[in-house]
Fold each of these.
Amino acid sequence: MTGGWALLVIDMQRDFCAPGGYADRVGMDITALRRPIPQIQRLLYAARGRGHTIVHTREGHRADLSDCSPAKLERSVAAGAPIGSPGPLGSLLVRGEYGHDIIDELAPHAGEPVVDKPGYGAFHQTDLELILLSAGVQRLVLTGITTEVCVHSTLREAVDRGYRCITVGDACAASDPEIHRAALAMTSGEGNILGRVCDTDEVLRLWAGEAEPT
């Protein structure tokens, strides 16, 4: 398979995947959010072996919250876990804190870009598009959490920018499995309007040249 692929690993952070982090404190099911880890590991292994671009993202804010809009901060307060408030993993969703970093199981390798984003979508106020353009990427494989928020926000931004996208259904997760299924159905509706939905095995076959590219 020729180049032009990038694997996006979206927000697999302790604040979303570990006890005491942001997701846990708002009552989300972190067991469900951790479910994609083995599939993402498989995709990372394959992407590294084939030389595909790999980009990790982290949602979070500066310590002074100057890049956190009042509306977003208000939503976190209403959810019961104000951004920047202290927790067992450090201040919630603040860059440089232990909870903000990517979980050990999916730790980036040297040279793999880590994009810190203040919003839900990975293109908003980041250099993600510059990274992709510099690498000649035309096709994105999206994984991570949550399916309905940060994955979907990134996907929609990518589609509008002309990228061909695959969302890996078993390598994404939501706290509520019904919401996860609905988000995937929204993606593949209207003739794959937001790109294809595949499982991990399908993507691995695609990368191995055993299936037609999107």
Note: Residues 5-61+101-207 form a domain with the Rossmann fold fold (CATH 3.40.50.850).
Amino acid sequence: MALRQPLLAAPALASRRRAFPGEDDAYARARKSLLAEEIDLRRKIARVAAQRRALPPGPLVKDYRFRDAEGTEGGLADLFGAHDTLVAYFWMYGPERERPCPMCTNWLGAVNGNAADIAQRVALRVVGRSPVDRQQAFARERGWHALDFVQTVGDDYARDFHLLNPDGSENPALAVFQKGAGGVRLFWKSDMTRDMADPGQDPRDAPDVASLWTILDLTPGGRGTGWYPSLDYGVRTG
């Protein structure tokens, strides 16, 4: 068994940074210090991911019912296909909404481009309270072609996972399930709720699964304030 090599300190790794033409000493020092923090963040993300993978067996879940594109009703176990792991994203597009949530739409647009790759490892389903044909109609409008939508039958799934509020509004959430000989268990669900948000920040998970925010976090202006994704910028993709 190979011994794990000790990690070098982040500042020592950051000292290997190669300077760019024209940068002055102030920029070089600040960028090297930031690079050390970025290395520490990378390691923190890896530690959290390992801690997540080491979770003990989660609770067995009910046989929630869903309806697919053909109108066939099945249980949660049927959504796994050939995999033993299911990633399910509940998006805010219930029957009472005229249009879906813009942020759910933004996130699913990015996932659509990775869906074929994700499917090599796990099952991926998009769960909504609206009929599948309504969800698919919006998908065609966006030019999505790789996402598999299902409709919840009843609201047990949404209520049990705190996705449906008493006033009828919805909350989005990622959930990961595992299927084994004993049934289907919840492995992990995003549990950072609005009341856990830090002051001055929109509610968010960590790490942030939205590529929109990840890209904007690299820019001088960051995520900005008073701005949010839109469903329509005047350009149709499909």
Note: Strands lie at 65-67, 73-75, 85-90, 123-128, 149-152, 173-180, 183-189.
Amino acid sequence: MTTTPPLTSAVPDLLYDSTHDQLRDSLRGLLTENCTTADLLEAAETRHQADTSLWDSIAGKLGLAGLLIPTEFGGDGATTREVAVVMEELGRAVAPVPYLASSVLATTALVDCARAGSTDAVSVLERLAAARLTATLVVQSTRAPHSNFPASVRATPGPAPAFVALSGTVTSVLAAHCANVLVVPATLSGVPVLALVDPAYSVRITPRTSMDTTRPVATVDFDNARAVVLSTGRTAVRAMNNALRTGTAMLAAEQVGLLEWTLETACSYLTVRHQFGRPIGSYQALRHRAAQMWIALGQARATSQYAAAALATDSPDADVAASLAKAHCTSLSLHAIEDCLQMHGGVGFTWEHPIHLRLKRAFAAQLTLGSPDHHLLLLGDLLDIPAPEAVGGHRITPAQEYTL
């Protein structure tokens, strides 16, 4: 008689614990009071202007800017599971703050550089954790993990080995308009480098019109800008890719927050809106749509939580989990918000309705850090599943990972 061998790997816990609940309650209370629909519409009118008071409260008062920063670098030493809770709440409120750009993308890259021995990265991380700085990773907002290392910025040797001069242009950079520090991928004689730049010197930042006015983008031009080298070669490649992978998973968590708001808003409207003397929620077709939203929320939350847990434990599944969460959650959130808008009828189609703020965020999230189609194709490569042939017989593949 044979017995089934025990599992060799632990299944991650996908449930929220008391720490997550307390974190959620604190942040939701702050956002409920300081990030109302009126505030968001006002921010939309004053394009490209970040809500500095809200960001100061989130980063400083609640101390959430340093969650991903290890304690030895002055941070809280939390994991992506806690950051996912923050992103859910920020997504639910579509808060116009640079958390994804600064506290996820730039911070993750800087942590990898600091662990590789960069004292300059450690110094920046300490100030980020203390909410004295805001940073961003200078890559196109559409760049996905495992893409080729960016070559749009060129580095030339500076007066000392630790310094370089940067020239080039990067379009559609998240939160560049409010960043005090720029983490810039560049190439030095064909070798990848990550460099640290003060945007006040030889850097021009031009705000661009974005579909999602609560998440502005800008074009960044470097004209022999002096920069400090943080890492080079494979270390730089790994740092950038890890930052993009972490940002991808956290963007999926943001979509869970959007979905949760959408479900609550749709169900509330179905009970208060009457048609022909009865609440529209009594009509079976609309109830079925609401039920599908509820199912979608459960699916999205499970997928997102698994990606956050995989990253937190440095699981071999992290790449697959992040891409799967991004492709799945962004598609579900956009479809649910479109359904919610239609449920609201004519009032839902007015630009002043808060649904449109979420609709724009969901549309923009489709392309941010790689489209769902890109991530599905990337999953095919990661899992060794052949991609379908395109019309004309040309195989569609995502950009290959940069190799030296």
Note: The CA atoms of residues 88 and 253 lie 5 Å apart.
Amino acid sequence: MERSFADRQTSPVSADQATPEAVPTHRAAGSESSQLPGYTTGFAIRLVAAQFLISLALFTPVTVSLSLRVSQIDPDGKASSLSTVLAIGGFLALIGGPLFGALSDRTTSRFGRRRPWVAGGMAVGFVGLVVSGLADNIAVLACGWAITQLGVNAALAAMHAVLADRVPDRVRGRISGAVGMMTYVAMVVGAVLARALTGSSLLLFALPGVLGLAGAALINTALRGDPPADKGALPPFRIGSFLRSFWVSPRRHPDFAWNFVGRFLVFVGVSSATGYQLYFAEDQLGQSTHEATGTVAIGMTVMTIGAVFGSLFFGWLSDRTGRRKFCVYTGTAILAAGIAGLATAHSTGAFLAAITVFGLGMGAYLAVDTAIAVKTLPRAEDAAKDLGVLNVANALPQSLVPAIAPLFLGIASADRTNYLALYLFGAAAAAAGAVALRFIRAVR
């Protein structure tokens, strides 16, 4: 899903990238319901607010709540258990976005294409959050988080398609950027919220879920008149055809293949740096759980500030010079340096400095990531589908990194948990991503 860090860092393919066709802004006169409202500033505000609230339901657990609950249930094996929970959830997020996006495109309900999936998906996600909050063992927690990922990603897949459906091209870049930025904001607010709710496992998960339901209701009120799908516009959904549509020949389209590989490696680095911050603060910095949640909240804040600055500056620089690769190399080098800084941090100040550098590099990379992606697409006619394929490279590390992280965390060292090995692996992966991107010929 083409979103911000959020949307780019922690989530799968969005429906707006899986659906090339936009819905007309108005229905023809004499249609069975009132005219579909056009784009307004109020609509944009509700869209952005809904993205924030639904992201809060998803990223509060990712940032803090899951780590806290796992450490309560399995304090001795918390790193390995968290990896299991995140890997299962990440895999379902990977398939959930494009799957539910494709189903939303074909929904002929009288309530429209998007509204049933936004409301129903968030309702299922809320059930999963409640199950997670009440879980007393890792298996139940993993099950609850899997339900949450499927439900919330169904809601997000339908909601992000609204950008193509309802937002005109003249403002789509700005609104897309604002929607994407809500992922960063949700991470910061979620970390602060979780710190205030550490006394109640249920509220840690349920309260963000309630806010997510409010977000779904907010955007659904703005989508009154959302038309159902035209039965003849798209072929019937077939799982085989759906899976085959995600293959793009690397021999025929080498630039696209190198971009996929580069993206994948960079987001392996990003996922390595963001998944274990609470445990790092507890184990490496010697903080209590309450202190660690505060450190993570501050870390998310400074990381977001760094990402915003890096995105604005390097986005401007790349537009001014036309040299996208330079910004990618610089951004990835800064990002890798930030991850390496985390590997050697032994104080709160060093941790915050490293995460700020990491955010700056991440913002610099993401500022030109989409511009490079567009230049490497095989065919303009399949732009939405092919962008969806590229975003698999963003989402896949969310499940792969937690699956392999225990191999690095368990390497024998003086520390009980080897964060040094994990973070150095992440830094090396991000640097390798920059090397892969240099083989792209279509971009300067």
Note: The domain at 1-22+35-245 is CATH 1.20.1250.20 (Growth Hormone; Chain: A;).
